[in-house]
Amino acid sequence: MPILSPWRSDFPALAALAADSQTYLDSAATSQKPQAMLDALLGYYRAGAANVHRAQHLPGERATRAFEEARGKIARWLNAASHDEIIFTRGATEALNLLAYGLEEHFHAGDEIVISALEHHANLLPWQQLAQRRDLALIVLPVTTSGQVDLVAAKHLIGPRTRLLAVSQLSNVLGTWQPLSELLALANTHGAITVVDGAQGVVHGRHDMQQLGCDFYVCSSHKLYGPDGVGVLYGRAATLQRVLPWQFGGEMLLQTDYYTAKFRPAPLGFEAGTPAVSAVIALGATLDYLASLDGAAVLAHEAALHAELLAGLGARPGVRVLGAPQTALASFVVEDVHSADLAHLLTEQGIAVRAGHHCAMPLLRGLGLPGAIRVSLGLYNDSGDLQRFFAALDHALEILG
Ligand SMILES: Cc1ncc(COP(=O)(O)O)c(C=O)c1O
C-alpha cells in the first residue's frame, strides 16, 4: 500500500514544485511551509508592520504582543521552564556563535571542550575557533559504525577538565539519534556546561527541555516548517546568567552614557537590534499548526516512509547507506560511482536531494568519502516521491554503470 501524507495539501509549495516536475527530498536542508505560516507572514505585513518593544502606538503594541506570544509558544513547544529562557537568533548557527562568544570568559588555557565526530560545521567551528582564541583543547568523541557517539570512549574523554560538551541530537548526515541522556549525565558529573544542537532533532517529535536537562538547546525555524531568518536558543535560566551579551545595540540595554552601559537580562539582553519580527510571528503560527496535528500520526508516517526509503536503497546492489539511520533521512554512496555524477543525473530528472559533504567535512573525510547523497523526508512526503526518486536513481545508475 503506498503511503500517503494527509498533510501534503497543507503545503502549497508541494503542488507548485510538482508543476515544475520537482520531487522535494531535501527537507533536512530546509523545509516547505504550511499555508498557516504563509498566512501569518503576509497577515502581519497586511495588518501593518511595526517595530517591537519600543513603539507606543497600536501597530507597535500589536507587533510586540504577537512577537512575545510567539516566544511563549516556543517555550511551550520545548517545555522550557520560562519564556525568558527563549532567545531569538538568526538561526541555529548564530545561536551557537552567541554561546561560543558569550561564554568565552569562563574558559582558561588547558580547559577542554568536547564535541563529537559527526557535528555539523555550525557546532564545530564556533568551538574550534574559541579553542584557538583561548588556548583550549578540543576533544572529539568518536562515532560507532552505526553512527552514534561511542559511549565507551566518551567515558574516558569526558573528564574533570571538560568545561563544555556540545553535541547533536540527530545527525544531519547519518540520521541517528545520539545517546544524549548518557552524554549529558557524563558531562554533569564533571560540572560541564552542556549544549545540544537540535537543528535536526527538533523537527521530529516533541522534546522536553526540562526532561532533557541540557543547559542550552539550539534550533532553526526554517527546518521546522517555519520561515527562515529566525532561530531559537533555549538556555536554562541559571546557566543563561553566565552568558555575556555578544552583540550590542538597540533595545538590549537598560541604560547607557557615552562610556558605559548596563544591559538587560535574558532574553532581550541577547536580542540587540530589530529582530525578525514577521518571521518570529510566523514561526508561532507554524507551531500552532504543528500542535494541531496528531503528533503520533506524524511520527508513524515518517517512520513508515523512512522504512520504505531504507528498503528501497537496501534492495539496490552497490548502494551503501552510511551508518544505521533511525529517522527522517539516509545518506548513501554507490560503489564505483562518483556521488557528484549521480547527483547531477538526479537533478536533471527533477529529484531535489542533497549531495556533497553535508556541512560535516571531517565526518565524511573520516569515512573516506568525498561526498554522499542524502535523501531527507518531511511530513508532506509520500510513497510517490520515493517511487520517483527510485526510478530516477535506477535510470541514473543504468547510465553510469
Ligand atoms: C545538525 C545541524 N546543526 C546546525 C545546522 C545549522 O542550521 P542553520 O543553517 O539553520 O543555522 C544545521 C543545518 O543544516 C544542521 O543540520
Automatic annotation (TrEMBL):
* InterPro entries (UniProt xref): Aminotrans_V_dom (IPR000192), Aminotrans_V_PyrdxlP_BS (IPR020578), Cys_dSase_SufS (IPR010970), PyrdxlP-dep_Trfase (IPR015424), PyrdxlP-dep_Trfase_major (IPR015421), PyrdxlP-dep_Trfase_small (IPR015422)
Record-annotated Aminotransferase class V domain positions: 23-389
Give the matching SUPFAM superfamilies.
Answer: PLP-dependent transferases
Q: Name one GO molecular function term.
A: cysteine desulfurase activity
Q: Which UniProt keywords apply?
A: Pyridoxal phosphate, Transferase
Is the keyword tRNA processing assigned to this protein? no
Q: Which domain of life does the UniProt lineage start with?
A: Bacteria
Q: Can you supply a Gene Ontology BP term from the record?
A: cysteine metabolic process
- List, alphabetically, the Gene3D superfamilies matched: Aspartate Aminotransferase, domain 1, Type I PLP-dependent aspartate aminotransferase-like (Major domain)
- Per the UniProt entry, the Enzyme Commission number(s) are 2.8.1.7
Query: Which reaction is recorded as catalysed by this protein?
Result: (sulfur carrier)-H + L-cysteine = (sulfur carrier)-SH + L-alanine
Query: What cofactor does this one take?
Result: pyridoxal 5'-phosphate
The UniProt family comment states:
Belongs to the class-V pyridoxal-phosphate-dependent aminotransferase family. Csd subfamily.
Q: Which PANTHER family does the entry link to? A: CYSTEINE DESULFURASE (PTHR43586), CYSTEINE DESULFURASE 1, CHLOROPLASTIC (PTHR43586:SF8)
Protein name per UniProt: cysteine desulfurase
Gene symbol of the encoding locus: csdA
